[in-house]
Amino acid sequence: MLRPVLMLIGLNLFILGFFPLLAYAQCTNGFCPLAPAPPSSRLSQLYSANSLGDFMNKLFTAALSIGAILAVMRLAWAGYLYMGTDAWSKKGQAKEVIGDVVLGILLLLSIWLILKQINPCLLDLNVLQGIQEGTCRG
Question: The whole model's pTM is what?
Answer without folding.
Answer: 0.56
